[in-house]
Design goal:
By secondary structure, this protein is α/β, with parallel strands linked by helices. It has a domain at about 40-50 and about 80-220: HAD superfamily/HAD-like (Rossmann fold). Helix content is about 20%, strand content about 25%. The protein contains 5 helices and 10 strands. It has a 5-stranded parallel β-sheet. It has a 3-stranded antiparallel β-sheet with strand order 1-4-3, covered by helices on one side. Strands 7-8 form a two-stranded antiparallel ribbon. The structure holds magnesium ion.
C-alpha cells in the first residue's frame, strides 16, 4: 500500500547559522533566469517548503577542535509523497524552476538531496523574491523570469506568492507531514500539467479548470 504521508528520515540537516548578508546591487532590472535551454518547453515553477518538502526545525550544537561550541540549525526534512515521480515526469515536459523564499544555504542542502538527477533546471531563492509589507510577504514575480507568461505555471502552497500573476498559479494544500492526512495532490496536478503541456496558453487552461464545470474533473482548485 502506498504511504499517504512522508518519512522523517529523508534527511537531517545541520546548518551553520545564516551567513552574513552579501551586498546586492539595487533592484533587478533584467531577467532572473538565463534564456531557456529548450524554448519549446513551458516553465513549471515550484515552491519548495510545504510544497515539495516539509522541514521541522530543531536545535543542535557543534563542538569545534578549539573547544568552542557553535549553535547549529537542525532540520528534519520529509518529502511530499509522490514528489520523486512528479519531478521525473514533469522534467520530460517542462523546464523546472524551484523558486523558494528560503535562503540559498538552506535550500541548496535540501535540493541537492531531493534532486540527485538534476531534474530541476534552475533554482531561485529569497534574493529573487520581491519583498512587501516590510519583508513580511515574499512575492515571486513571474514577469521577471524572462519567459512567455502564457507558458508558465507556478505551484505554491502560499497563494500570496503568485498574487502578481494569479492566473498562472495552482495553490497546493500545504504539506505538513501529519499522520492520517492525505497528500496526494501532486498526482492531480501532474495529470493536469501532462495534459496541457503542449497548450499554447496554459493560463487559459487554468481559467477553465477553475470553472464550476471543470473543477471536479481537474481537481486542482
Ligand atoms: Mg511554501
Amino acid at each position: 500500500m502506498k504511504r499517504e504521508h512522508g518519512d522523517w528520515d529523508f534527511q537531517t540537516l545541520d546548518l551553520m547559522p545564516e551567513p552574513k548578508k552579501v551586498k546586492t546591487k539595487g533592484e533587478f532590472t533584467t531577467c532572473i533566469l538565463p534564456p531557456p535551454l529548450d524554448p519549446n518547453k513551458p516553465t513549471l515553477v515550484l515552491d519548495m517548503d510545504n510544497t515539495l518538502i516539509h522541514a521541522r526545525e530543531g536545535k543542535a550544537t557543534l563542538r569545534l577542535f578549539s573547544g568552542k561550541v557553535v549553535p547549529l540549525e537542525r532540520y528534519m526534512v520529509a518529502k511530499r509523497p509522490g514528489v520523486d515521480e512528479f519531478l521525473r515526469d514533469m522534467a520530460k515536459l517542462y523546464e523546472i524552476v524551484v523558486f523558494t523564499a528560503a535562503m540559498q544555504y538552506y535550500a541548496d542542502k535540501i535540493l541537492d538531496k531531493l534532486d540527485p538527477e538534476g531534474l530541476i533546471t534552475h533554482r531561485l531563492y529569497r534574493d529573487s523574491c520581491v519583498s512587501c509589507d516590510g519583508g513580511e510577504t515574499m512575492i515571486k514575480d513571474l514577469s521577471r523570469l524572462g519567459r512567455d507568461l502564457k507558458r508558465v505555471v507556478i505551484v505554491d502552497d502560499n497563494p500570496h506568492s503568485f498574487s502578481l500573476q494569479p492566473r498562472n498559479g495552482i495553490p497546493i494544500p500545504a504539506f505538513k507531514n501529519r499522520k492520517g492526512r492525505k497528500y496526494s495532490h501532486l498526482k492531480d496536478i501532474g495529470f493536469f500539467l501532462e495534459t496541457f503541456a503542449k497548450a499554447e496558453d496554459l493560463t487559459r487552461a487554468l481559467d477553465i479548470a477553475k470553472t464550476k464545470r471543470y473543477r471536479k474533473i481537474c481537481k486542482i482548485f
